[in-house]
Amino acid sequence: MGRYLIRRLNLFLATTLALFIILFVATRWFPADLSYALSGVALPTTQQQLQIEQDYALHSNVISQFLAYVTERLSGNFGISVTSRQSVLNELAGVLPPSFELAFVAGIIALLCGIPLGMLSALSRSKMVQKTIMAATLTGYSIPVFWLGLLLSLWFGIELGLLPISGQINLLYQIPKVTGFMLFDTLLYNGDYKWNAFADVLAHIILPACTLAVLPFTVVVRITRAAMLNVMNQTYIRAAEARGLPYHTIVLKHALPNALIPLLKHLGLMLGPFASYAIVVEVIFSWPGVGAWLVSGIYQRDYTVIQAGIFAVALVIIFFSILIEVLYTAANPMSRKEMYGTN
Amino acid sequence: MELSTLCTPSRLNAYLSRAEPINQVTTITSRVATRLLMVCGLLLATSACQQQDDSQVPNGLVYCSEGNPESFNPQIVTSGTTIDATSHQIYSRLIDDNTSSSEFLPALASSWTVSDDGLVYEFELRHGVKFHTTRFFTPSREMNADDVVFSFSRIIDTENPFHETAQRGFPFFDSIGFNKLIKQISKVDQYRVRFELNYPDASFLANMATDFAVVLSQEYAEQLLLQGTPQLLDTNAVGTGPYQLVEYVKNQYIRYRRNPDYWGEQPESEQLVFDITPRSTVRLSKLIVGDCSISALPKAGELQVAKQHDDLEVDSRPGMNVAYWALNTKKPPFDDVRVRQALAYAIDKRSLLNAVYHDTAVVAAGILPPSSWAFPDENVELQYNPAKAKSLLAAAGVKNLTIDIWAMPVARSYNPNPQKTAELIQADLKAVGIRVNIISFDWSVFTQRLASSNYDSVLIGWSADNSDPDNFFTPLLSCGSIQSHNNWANWCHKGFDTLLRQAKNITDEQERKVLYRAAEEIIGQEVPVIPLAYAQRMLLKRKNAPYVQLLPFGGIAFDKVSQPEPVGGRH
C-alpha cells in the first residue's frame, strides 16, 4: 500500500514538473517583456525591476531561471494582476471556491439522477424505456454546452422569469466571505435576510449546475447501464438469486457497488472535458469562478492571471485524476494487488 | 438451498427460466430509481419555489455597468467607465455643472470670486463637510482648505509624494496644460482657497467643474504616507460624495454604501452596486430578469427588444460627444494629407450610422456636437466619394495599402459597437483597394497598449467633460495633448493651436464661435481625425427603477436614486 501511494505521489510530482516546464516555456513566448509577463508589474520602479530580476534570476542561465520560477510559484508568488494590480494568489483564492461549489453541485446532480436512470435502463425489460433513456442520453451527450446554457437561460430566465441567469447571488445581499462557498457562507451569515439570501443562492446555482451536469449525467447513465448489464450476468448474481435473496438486496447490495467501480474510473477520465465545460458554463452564466476569471484574463492580456489560471486548473485536474485512481484501486479488488507493488 | 446444488448447471437453468423474479427485480429497481429521481426533482423544485415566495432583498440599487474601472480616482484617468464608478458617487467637486444653464452650481465651494483680470479665483468652502469613514480611515477633522490645496497641488507639484504615484500622469489635466496655467494654489484661511493663474483662461471654471477635478482628503494621504502605501490613495478611495466605497471585486461588482455624513441631500438607496457586465446582451438579459434595474450603454439593436418588454424603458438624451477615427499622422503613409483625405472620402458614414447606431445618432460633420453653443452653422464635412478617394490615393502614389484599425470590443457612450464600425470601414476601404486589419483588446488594456505601440489608426471618441467648446479641441488635437496620450492623431498644427489659444483668452461667445469654426475648417482640410457620429446617451431601465441623472457631460449620478420596489424580485 505504502509503495503504491509513493508511486502515485511520484506520478503527481512528475506531471506537475511537466506542467511547470510547459508554463515556463510558454511564458517566454508571450508577446511582452519577460519580467512584465512574470510579475505583472507594468511600470516598475528601478528598485522593483531589480527585485523582479533577482527573484526570477533573469540574468542567469535557463536552468537557474527555471528553478527560480518554480521556487517563486511554489512559495505562492504568482505576481500581481496586470489589470487590477492585486495579488494574483488572492484573486485565485477568491475564484476557486465558487468553481468547486458549482462543480460539486453539478456532480451531485449528475450522480443522483444518472445512477438510478442507468440502473433503470439496464434492468428494465421494456424496450421502450431503454430506448427512451438511451436516446435522451445520446441527445444530452451531443448537445453543445454553450448552446444548451443559452437556451436554458432564455427559457427559464427570460421567457418564464423563473430563475436568475447570471452570477452567484443577488448583489444586494452582502454576505461576508468565510469559506468562500456561497451556500455555506449564507448559512453561516447571521443577519437579516439570511434565508432569503440562501434561497437566492440556491436559485442562482440551479441553471448553471444543471447545464454543467448534463455531460457527466449522460456519461454516468451510459457507464452505469453498461456496468450493470455486465454485472447482472455474473455468476455471483445468479448465485445470490439462487440463494433466494430479495431482489432489491441483490441489485443494491451485490450488483450496484460492483457496477460503480468502472463508473469511478470513468469519472477520473472525464475530469478534463468536465473542466473545459465548466469554463464555458461559467462564462455563459457569469459565474464568478476560475474559468470566467481565466477567460477575462485572456481577453485583457493579463499574463499573470493566464499563467495562474492555467496552473490552477491543470493542477486540480492532475490532483483529482490521481486521487480518483487511488480510490479506484482501493475500491476495486481486481486491481488491489497493484497496491503491493507486485505487478 | 445449498450452494453446491445451485451450481449444477441444469438446476440453475431451470431456476433462471422462471421469469418472474427477474421481473420483480426490475420493478423494485425502477421504483427505487423513480423515487430517487423524484427526490432530486423535488429538491430543485422547492428551491425554485422558495425563491418565488420571497422577493425580499435589502434596500438598494443594482446598476449593470460595462467594465472594470482602471482606478478609483478620476484625477488619473479619462475613461468613462472609471468616471461613472467614481466621480459622482465617491467624490465631490468644488463646483458642479448646471444641467440647464451655463452657470455653475456650488458644491464643496459655497461661493467663489474672480478677479477683474481673470487671473485670481477664490473659493469659499462649505463648512461641516466630512470625509468617508471607512475600514481603512477615520477622519479626525472636517474638510478644509488643506484638502483642496492638496488635491490640486498633487497634480502640478512634481515634488509632491503623490505626484509620482500616478504612474500614467494626470491625462485630463496634462491635456489642458493645467501645470502651465496654475501659478500658485494657496490657503487663505481654513475655508478659503486661492488659485492664481499665469494667464486668463475662459474655461477655468468649466474645468474645475469636470468629473476629474475631485477633492481628496489630505489627512488620509498623510496617513497612507506614514504607512508607506501611498499608492492606495487611488484604489482605497476616500471622498466626500454621496456613496462610499465598500468593496471592489474585479470582473464582478463594486459595492457602495450610502454616506451618512453626505453634505448634500441624502440618496434614498442604502446600497449601490455596480454589476460589472461587459457584454451588452448579458446586461439586457439581466435587466429583463431583474438582476439589475438600470443598465448602461445598450446597443442600438437591443432597443427593439427592450420595447417589447412593457416593464423596460429607454432613457436618452443628446450627448456631448463625438466618435471619430484618428489617423496616426506621424506614421507614413498617414503623414500625407492626401491619404488622410482619401480615407475620409472612402467611408460611407450614413450607412455606417444606420448599421451601428440605428436612429440614435447623427452624422458628425466636425468635432463639435450640435448641442454645443459653438456648433458651426456651415458644414465642412468631406462627403462620401470613393472615386475621389481612389484618385487621391493614386496622386499620393500609394498602392496595395494595408492598415490596422484599433477598435475596442466594448461599448462606449459615443460608440455602442466599435467592432462593427471597424468592420464596416473595412468593407468601405476594400472598395477603394485598401486592406484592413482590425485589432482589439479589452478596454482596460486598450489605451495602455495603444499608447505604447506604433499604431496606424484607432476608432475612438470623446465625451465632453464640461460645457466649454474648448474641451473638444485642446484635449484632443492640440500639440500639448500629444504628450498626454489623448491626441491619438499625434497631430500638431501651429495655426490650429494659435486659434485655440486665442479662443480661450476671450470670453465673448460670438467671437469664440468664429474662431472655433475656423478651427473646424482646419480639421476638415487636414483630416487628422475623421469624425463619424454624435451619439445619444442612453440607459435602459426598469420602469419601477427611480430617476437617474444622466449627466450631460459624461458621467452618471445616483445621488437622487432610490428604489421603490425591491430589485431582486423575479417578474
TrEMBL record, chain A:
The chain crosses the membrane at residues 12-30, 102-123, 135-158, 201-223, 274-299, 305-328. Gene3D superfamilies: MetI-like. Keywords: Cell membrane, Membrane, Transmembrane, Transmembrane helix, Transport. It is a multi-pass membrane protein. Pfam families: BPD_transp_1. It is found in: Cell membrane. Residues 96-328 form the ABC transmembrane type-1 domain. Belongs to the binding-protein-dependent transport system permease family. OppBC subfamily. This is ABC transporter permease. It comes from Shewanella electrica. The lineage of its organism: Bacteria, Pseudomonadati, Pseudomonadota, Gammaproteobacteria, Alteromonadales.
